[in-house]
Amino acid sequence: MKIMSKSLVAASLLLAGSQFAFVVPAAAQAVKGIAVANPTAIVALSNAFKVAETQRPVTYKAQIDQANARKAQIEAQLRPMAAKLQTDAQAPNAASNQAALQQQYAQIQQIEQSGQNEINQILQPVALSRAYVIEQIGDKLEQATKQAMAKQKIEILLDSQSVINAGETYNLNQAILNEVNAILPSAQLVPPAGWLPRQQREAQAQQQGAAPAPAAAAPATPSTKPKGR
Question: How many other CB atoms sit within 10 Å of the CB of residue 73?
Fold first, then answer.
């Protein structure tokens, strides 16, 4: 039975960001074989993740610079449009020009959304790199957790985020983190060509598995024409 969901760890880390902290006493020791841990924080505080975070802005500098430049262009385009909308909305005849104001607002929103989509596309290699690093660490997290539990004689491990309150003597974060750092000191930064995060790969596999099989050829119908005499 898996101790933690790797895809859940990766997804939660991508959504929650990379700023985590936890406090572990010098001699943390769980009580009666029960402990708690925060897998998301462990991944974010691992050496492999932190090193990759410092390397990525250098490796993907071209994409980051391009995205920043495009963002500045979009902001420059929207700035006078937003100012005009504000001026028109404060005009004495604004009440009678609601349709025109709504049109201006919709145009601004459209440009903002289109620009954000464009920037996201430019930064897609950066996002894939981060997801790739997280998945590599997540793949080692279960092994690290089992090793830490065995060394600390832990029989039950709970996710600290699902526990209302637990003293620091139950915290197994540092022990698991030490194991992760030993198993995976560093991670590969650039994913292979065509790589997709596990959740997307699994979704594609499910879609392919649900695809209807091609129709089988109809069996040949035996001829009923009487044989000539």
Answer: 11
Among 49, 8, 216, residue whose Cα is nearest residue 137: 49
CA-to-CA separations, 214 to 205, 210, 211, 217, in angstroms, rounded: 18, 12, 9, 9
CA atoms within 13 A of residue 228's CA, in its CB half-sphere? 0
Judge whether 48 and 137 are in contact, CB under 8 Å: yes
Structure-block tokens of residue 182: 């030993």
Q: Which of these, 166, 171, 177, 179, lies nearest to 154 by C-alpha position?
A: 171
Q: Show pLDDT as tens, one digit a residue, over the chain (229 residues).
A: 444 444 444 444 444 444 444 444 434 444 578 898 999 999 999 999 999 999 999 999 999 999 999 999 999 999 999 999 999 999 888 778 889 999 999 999 999 999 999 999 999 999 999 999 999 999 999 999 999 999 999 999 988 777 666 666 788 999 999 999 999 999 999 999 999 999 999 999 998 876 555 544 444 444 444 444 4
- Name the helix (H) or strand (E) containing 138: helix 124-152
What one-character-per-residue DSSP string does 159-217 give? EGGG-S---GGGB-HHHHHHHHHHH-S---SSPPTT---HHHHHHHHHHHHHSPPPPPP
